[in-house]
UniProtKB/TrEMBL annotation:
NCBIfam families from the UniProt entry: rsfS_iojap_ybeB
InterPro entries referenced in this protein's UniProt entry, alphabetically: Iojap/RsfS/C7orf30 (IPR004394), NT_sf (IPR043519)
Location (main, coarse): cytoplasm
Record-linked Gene3D superfamilies: Beta Polymerase, domain 2
Classification of source organism: Bacteria, Pseudomonadati, Pseudomonadota, Gammaproteobacteria, Lysobacterales
Source taxon at top rank: Bacteria
Name under which the protein is recorded: Ribosomal silencing factor RsfS
Signal peptide (from-to): none
Gene Ontology cellular-component annotations: cytoplasm
Primary role: Functions as a ribosomal silencing factor. Interacts with ribosomal protein uL14 (rplN), blocking formation of intersubunit bridge B8. Prevents association of the 30S and 50S ribosomal subunits and the formation of functional ribosomes, thus repressing translation.
Length: 138
């Protein structure tokens, strides 16, 4: 009987996926699992933590977890290992950190409470332009 241990060494992809490739993988993953109200926010120049945030909603805790799992799966298919995944246990808000892209998957009530879109888009809108302006046409 052989006592040789099998050692698995994690490897970073050469070269690592670009931000555009990561965003495309995240878009495909959230579309595949039918996430709701997906929003991408460019946060370059606002924080050094990431370049882009993707925020999506799930219809239940199971859906939120499934969306986050799909994002991780699509990222791994690119050769990108998530730096961290937080909140899977409760699955009301799951954060998937892909480095330059951070994905927040939330239940609608949690998303409304924390209002990340408003927080990260302050100052992006031109003065006098209402974000809901186009919704009143009907």
């Amino acid at each position: 009987m052989s006592n040789q241990a099998h050692v698995i060494k994690p490897r970073l992809p050469e070269p690592p996926p670009s931000v555009d490739q990561l965003l495309a993988a995240v878009r495909a993953a959230v579309e595949e699992i039918k996430a709701k109200d997906v929003v991408e926010i460019d946060v370059r120049g606002k924080t050094s933590v990431a370049d882009h945030l993707v925020i999506a909603s799930g219809t239940s805790t199971r859906h939120v977890k499934s969306i986050a799992d799909e994002v991780v799966k699509f990222a791994k298919n690119l050769g990108a290992m998530p730096l961290g995944v937080e909140g899977e246990r409760e699955a009301e808000w799951v954060l998937v950190d892909l480095g330059d892209v951070i994905v927040h998957v939330m239940l609608p009530r949690v998303r409304e409470f924390y209002a990340l879109e408003r927080l990260w888009s302050v100052g992006d809108q031109k003065p006098g332009v209402d974000a809901d302006e186009g919704d009143e046409a009907e």
